[in-house]
Design goal:
The chain is of the alpha/beta class. It has five helices and five strands. The longest helix has 13 residues. The protein is globular.
Length: about 130
């Protein structure tokens, strides 16, 4: 059986970004499950909680801010990392809001995938940090 650094649920509505991040995180040794939106992600968490959730902020329907709020309400100990490339609002303001609402960490796109991997590993294993 393969040993992964962390079990990650990655939420992003953009197929190309979701699949690119999956490939990169697999390369870094993470076990990655994918959701194309919040509703699918919440169902997946109910079925088998990951160690870390990584969510895009700008998504239709329920955005990443809503994801952070719902995860913290329903699974308060589950770490959430929010990522954003901006959109209608400045990225830094949205990421600050995500932190205030309980996100463990945030990153602005484009970001260094190695940094995301480090944040995931740290969030999944806080005592090892």
């Amino acid at each position: 059986m393969r040993c992964f650094l962390a079990e990650v649920l990655l939420i992003d509505d953009d197929d190309l970004i979701r699949e690119s991040l999956e490939a990169a995180l697999l390369h870094f040794g993470h076990d990655v499950r994918l959701a194309n939106g919040a509703r699918m992600a919440f169902q997946m968490i109910e079925e088998r909680a990951p160690q870390v959730v990584v969510t895009d902020i700008m998504m239709p329907d329920i955005d990443g801010i809503g994801v952070v709020q719902e995860v913290k309400k329903r699974w308060p100990t589950l770490p959430v990392i929010a990522i954003s490339g901006g959109g209608m609002s400045p990225s830094d303001d949205i990421l600050t809001m995500a932190t205030v609402l309980g996100a463990t960490a945030t990153l602005s796109k484009p970001f260094d995938i190695a940094e995301l991997s480090r944040l995931i590993t740290r969030a999944a294993n806080p005592s090892a940090a």
